[in-house]
Design goal:
Elements lengths: L19 H6 L2 H26 L11 E5 L5 H16 L3 E3 L1 H5 L8 H9 L3 E6 L1 H7 L11 H15 L5 E6 L13 E3 L6 H8 L4 E7 L5 E8 L3 H9 L6 E6 L1
Helix pairs in contact: 2-5, 2-7, 5-7
Amino acid sequence: MKDSDNPEDSSGEIKGMPTFAEILKLPRDEAIKAAGVRGWEIARLNQLLNEVLANTSEPPAKPFIIFVSYRWESQAHQAWVKRLVNDLQARGYDVYLDQNIQAEREEPLPVPELISLLARSNRFLMVLSEGYLERIEPNDERGSIKDGWVWDEYQTAIHLANLGRIKSWLVAWRSGKLPDWVKEEQVWDFRDDAQYEAVMNAAFPPQMVRIIGVRPDGSARIVGPIERVKTNVVGRQLESTGEFDHFVIENL
């Protein structure tokens, strides 16, 4: 298909459809008639995301800052996701998980704040299950959805990936059929719990850094590579010698 045949312009809007700005000026019912449920939702998310991006610096490419997206299907599933996050953090990854953030709050996290967390991430990790897939794929010809936020964060992540802010899209496959649109290189097969450690080691090796100790005369000594989670311990050991004026952490 030629570029001129593409129904989407560079903004992601559909030719012949109302623009995002036009949709948002309409009452909700009229907007849905004009653009459909998905069109109205995408316009609303686009507005929220633009507001967040105007006040959020682009995340660095490294270290990995991972936003974990999953469906609250059962307590067992939630516990598995929490285990995954704990293991990622133990390997030196920075991770945003709503369970951890919500645990410190009395009120539910508002959508703009969750979008802000996504905007500060550079990796999106989807825990793909049957329940998750049901929430991001329309269930009728009008594009109706079953679960607002799962769909919202998925769509927001797509937008951020298109902007180049999310550097890679990762899939932890837990259950159900693997959808056609998922690329093989994105997927890590976590369906067999007996293989969990092996898959973790392959998918998420420890994040490595080097520590550069700078002496008062400007000369330096490099220590590393070392695991990122051990930087505080190594830094304190170097500091105790009195040799260095300050330290620089360099991501590998």
